[in-house]
Amino acid sequence: MALHKAHRLKSRKDFQAVFREGLRRNSYHFTLRALRPLPSVKPSLDATPEEGQGRQGKHSPLTPSPPHPLPPTQVGISISTKVSKRAVVRNRIKRQIAAAMHQLLPKISPGWRLVVVVKPTAAEQECVTQQFLQELEQLLAQAEVFNGNS
Fold first, then answer.
1. Cα(12)–Cα(92) distance, rounded to whole angstroms?
2. What is the pTM of this model?
3. Which CATH code is given to the segment(s) 27-36+70-144?
4. pLDDT at position 48
5. In b/e form, how buried is each residue of 52-80, taking b as 16+ CB within 10 angstroms?
6. Sequence-separated (6 or more) residues with CB below 8 Å from residue 100
7. 120: alpha, beta or left? (left if phi > 0; alpha if psi -120 to 50)
8. Residues 147, 109 contacting (CB under 8 angstroms)
9. Which regions are flagged for Pro residues bias (predicted)?
10. Which residues contact 72 (CB under 8 A, 6 or more apart)?
């Protein structure tokens, strides 16, 4: 099953941010890059610097506004021609990874940006969706992206 559009990491800028700032975890078939969600509490912008006028109901500039909901977790899959020269093989591996991530998404805390980098060893296997699922689950646990670990 494919990932929903809201859960796909698409832009080059997002991929670069994950590679530049994210943490890295390795396994036999994959490298996981994970960028922690941004803090959801921001200073209030509707505050006025009027002090000492006794106005009630206004926030001070340093009062945090209510937390904003985190965006959904986004996943990108990076697979180069080093894995396989054949696009059919690369696309099959991408579909298997997307299916595995689709199963794992409900367990992942919201707001994470993840990139799964596929290693050439992944092309040596045949029909290993279950193995990919277990390996990805292990990587996500190591990166502490599951609910309750963030």
1. 22
2. 0.76
3. 3.30.230.10
4. 47
5. eeeeeeeeeeeeeeeeeeeeebbbbbbbe
6. 129, 132, 133, 136
7. alpha
8. yes
9. 63-72
10. 6, 7, 110, 111
Which residue shows structure tokens 């859960």? 7
Please, which residues bridge with residue 33 across strands?
24, 115
For residue 94, give both structure tokens. Answer: 């991408």
> What type of residue is 131?
Q
**Residue where the block lists tokens 């277990």:** 134
Token readout for 22 is: 């994210």
Report the alpha-carbon distance of residue 85 to residue 101 in Å, rounded.
Answer: 24
Q: In the chain, what are the domain boundaries? A: 27-36+70-144
For 10-59, the pLDDT digits (tens) are 899 999 999 999 999 999 999 999 998 876 544 444 444 444 455 555 55
Tell how many helices (H) and how many strands (E) occur in the chain. 3, 4
